[in-house]
């Protein structure tokens, strides 16, 4: 097992132990859990930095790299926001195992790298992909907070930020497409599902303006856009061909 | 009557219904095979392998969602809903600003007026009136305006925008032969692409024999005044020319280059393009193509195999009215007599595929995107709040006007009012 793979399993362990500690309902233990998760996150960041150095290009193109970076954003967004809003700390019970799963599952993919095609050699790759990862981080935290009781206010805020980041990601991708391909929109499956996800968030945000949809089991409808976002990011390319798969995740 | 219709159009229920329907339509269009996006081969496979599913999708209008009348109708209804919503939202916000509407919050009591510090309403603008977050008032209308502009720009672009594929070989010129452009969108577009350009050289770089890492096309472009300038086109760096933009579209291959030698002795160049997968670039190849070779109203049908090992070779068979009239295996310099004229094979050169686009509404689309995101950012970061305190000899009244999703103020108001009532 290479050093990077071992370190990646350490990150998985760190996130999982932190999640288990968060189940113990003890404030001091919660702080230990968050500290442990933060340490694991620093190691996670280091793994990505080393990869960047090693391959000499942004590590966000293969499925392995994509999932590892997305997991970093998921854990990072949680760690920052729980620091600002400690009352959502328990969301780590759901967020950290998901981040651990993504880091572990990434290792099942090919760990090799391939050189960037000309279309990827632009700053828009960084902007587009990082907005995607951040949106994934916010959406995962939103989904976790929905499962906590009495968190309607923060849920709305997080969902609004997810909507903003995902929409900005779509807009940035569209601009990039206009420079690379001469058209800003082509109803490609990925583009269509990205828009459908934007609309799903818009639908739920409008729905939650009605108090009846902010509590009880009805609130679970807010998980729908999250599931669509996950499908757009990870599932769609498994069942449909897309112009985007010519460049990514080989 | 009109006012009531306008209110119905602006209704939240209609917005939810339309967003929900569009969401389902877009998800369906992104998942189900769309006939307008399939190549002829994929289309025939779809109809032959899935005869029932393809017929059902066609009948219910899901085989071309984004080009269907009902999708356009939903989009137009959403546009109307947003226009009506924006107009009502602006009047609502003006009323919030001036306090002309019923306040969202009201608390009254006797004695000395309470301290408003907990409400943190900001600077006092007028006597007893506190306002903050004026920019927050325009956030949501700006966001909805941006969305409406995006939709309008997309509709305008669908009508006016133009896109076409075309191929050019190394050493070949384009001089306004619009018949060479394979139109992709924009049938109503009438401005002719009349640039004069020549593809001087093609640079393709592969790594490990399978990864394309560099693709550049060098052009000579002649202006109407006769000046020649040299330009390089590459991915993410299109060439702006005669009101159009030229992009490499990542198709490439090799061209068999011929001279057609007419009975008069006149020579005319001919390039026949053979598509090659990117991964085969720079390796020995053998590419086939069957195509009509119409010249001087004489329809001929040809079968060609262009191959290269050490040198280029062309196996060529030409038929007229189903009867073979010429056949040969040519090396550069060889001539084949087709009866009406002769073909001299001169060798092979690379060709590249380009996408030619002219989309004036594109600037509006991206400006609208910026407006949308800016509006939403204002909505997220800045909340308009207006608090007014009225005192009299007998008591006081505190009123607050906020946006309906201002949960933070709602929480503060609950805490503050509990504190005031419990003092």
How many strand segments of chain B?
A: 20
Helix content of chain B: 25-40%
Strand content of chain B: 35-45%
Poorly predicted parts of chain A: none
Low-confidence stretches of chain B: none
Give a quick account of the main beta sheet of chain A: strands, pairing sense, barrel closure.
Answer: none
Note the overall shape of chain B: elongated
User: What is the strand content of chain A?
Assistant: under 5%
The rounded distance between the terminal residues' Cα atoms of chain A is: 23 Å
Q: Report the mean per-residue pLDDT of chain A as an integer.
A: 92
Helix percentage of chain A? 55-70%
- Supply Rg of chain B: 34 Å
Mean pLDDT of chain B: 89
SS-based class of chain B: alpha+beta
Based on helices, strands and strand pairing, what is the structural class of chain A? mainly alpha
Largest interface: A-B, 50 and 54 residues
How many alpha or pi helices of chain A? 8
Biggest pleated sheet of chain B: 7 strands, antiparallel
Furnish the topology, listing elements before pairings.
The complex is a heterodimer of chains A (250) and B (423).
Chain A: H1 3-21, H2 27-55, H3 63-84, H4 92-106, H5 123-146, H6 152-180, H7 189-207, H8 223-239
Chain B: H1 2-9, H2 12-31, H3 40-49, H4 51-59, H5 69-98, E1 105-110, E2 124-126, E3 129-132, H6 134-160, E4 162-169, E5 173-175, E6 182-185, E7 196-207, E8 211-222, E9 228-234, E10 239-241, E11 244-261, E12 267-275, E13 285-292, E14 301-308, E15 312-320, E16 323-330, E17 335-337, E18 342-358, H7 362-381, E19 385-391, E20 395-402, H8 407-421
Antiparallel strand pairs in B: 1-20, 2-3, 3-19, 4-6, 4-18, 5-7, 7-8, 8-9, 10-11, 11-12, 11-18, 13-14, 14-15, 15-16, 17-18, 19-20
Helix pairs in contact in B: 2-5, 3-4, 5-6, 6-7
């Amino acid at each position: 097992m290479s050093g990077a793979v071992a370190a990646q399993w350490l990150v998985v362990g760190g996130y999982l132990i932190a999640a288990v500690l968060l189940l113990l309902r003890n404030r001091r233990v919660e702080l230990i859990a968050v500290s442990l998760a933060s340490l694991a996150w620093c190691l996670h960041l280091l793994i990505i930095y080393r990869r960047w150095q090693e391959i000499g290009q942004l590590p966000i193109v293969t499925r392995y790299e994509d999932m590892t970076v997305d997991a970093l954003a998921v854990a990072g967004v949680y760690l920052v926001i729980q620091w600002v809003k400690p009352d959502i700390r328990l969301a780590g019970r759901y967020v950290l195992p998901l981040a651990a799963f993504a880091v572990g599952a990434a290792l099942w993919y090919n760990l090799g790298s391939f050189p960037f095609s000309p279309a990827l050699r632009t700053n828009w790759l960084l902007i587009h992909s990082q907005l995607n990862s951040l949106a994934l981080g916010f959406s995962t935290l939103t989904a976790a907070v929905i499962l906590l009781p009495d968190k309607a206010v923060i849920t709305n805020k997080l969902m609004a930020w997810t909507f903003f980041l995902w929409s900005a990601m779509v807009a940035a991708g569209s601009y990039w497409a206009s420079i690379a391909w001469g058209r800003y929109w082509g109803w490609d499956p990925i583009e269509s599902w990205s828009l459908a996800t934007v609309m799903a968030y818009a639908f739920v945000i409008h729905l939650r303006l009605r108090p009846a949809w902010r509590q009880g089991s009805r609130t679970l409808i807010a998980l729908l856009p999250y599931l669509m976002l996950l499908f757009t990011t990870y599932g769609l390319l498994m069942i449909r061909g897309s112009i985007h798969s010519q460049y990514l995740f080989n | 009557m009109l006012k009531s219709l306008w209110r119905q159009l602006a209704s939240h229920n209609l917005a939810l219904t339309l967003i929900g329907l569009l969401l389902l339509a877009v998800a369906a269009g992104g998942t189900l095979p769309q006939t307008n996006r399939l190549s002829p081969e994929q289309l025939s496979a779809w109809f032959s392998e899935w005869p029932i599913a393809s017929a059902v999708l066609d009948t219910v209008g899901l085989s071309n969602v984004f080009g269907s009348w009902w999708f356009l109708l939903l989009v137009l209804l959403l546009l109307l809903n947003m226009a009506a919503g924006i107009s009502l939202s602006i009047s609502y916000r003006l009323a919030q600003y001036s306090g002309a509407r019923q306040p969202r919050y009201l608390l009254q009591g006797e004695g000395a007026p309470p301290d408003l510090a907990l409400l943190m309403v900001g600077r006092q603008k007028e006597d007893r009136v506190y306002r903050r977050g004026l920019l927050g008032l325009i956030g949501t209308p700006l966001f909805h305006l941006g969305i409406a502009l995006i939709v309008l720009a997309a509709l305008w672009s669908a009508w006016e925008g133009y896109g076409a594929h075309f191929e050019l070989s190394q050493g070949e010129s384009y001089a306004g032969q619009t018949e060479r452009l394979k139109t992709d969108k924009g049938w109503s577009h009438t401005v002719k692409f009349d640039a004069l350009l020549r593809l001087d050289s093609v640079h393709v770089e592969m790594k490990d024999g399978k990864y394309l890492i560099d693709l550049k096309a060098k052009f000579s472009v002649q202006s109407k005044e006769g000046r020649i300038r040299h330009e390089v086109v590459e991915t993410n760096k299109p060439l702006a020319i005669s009101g159009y933009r030229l992009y490499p579209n990542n198709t490439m291959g090799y061209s068999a280059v011929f001279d057609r030698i007419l009975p008069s002795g006149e020579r005319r160049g001919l390039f026949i393009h053979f598509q090659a997968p990117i991964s085969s670039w720079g390796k020995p190849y053998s590419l086939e193509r069957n195509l009509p070779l119409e010249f001087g109203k004489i329809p001929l049908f040809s079968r060609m195999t262009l191959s290269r090992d050490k040198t280029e070779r062309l196996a060529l068979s030409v038929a007229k009215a189903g009867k073979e009239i010429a056949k040969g295996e040519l090396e550069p310099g060889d001539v084949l007599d087709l009866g009406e004229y002769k073909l001299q094979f001169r060798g092979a050169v690379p060709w590249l595929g380009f996408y030619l686009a002219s989309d004036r509404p594109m600037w509006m689309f991206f400006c609208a995107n910026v407006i949308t995101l800016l509006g939403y950012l204002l909505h997220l970061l800045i909340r308009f709040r207006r608090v007014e305190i009225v005192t009299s000899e007998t008591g006081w009244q505190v009123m607050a006007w906020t946006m309906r999703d201002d949960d933070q103020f709602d929480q503060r108001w609950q805490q503050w009012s509990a504190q005031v009532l419990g003092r």
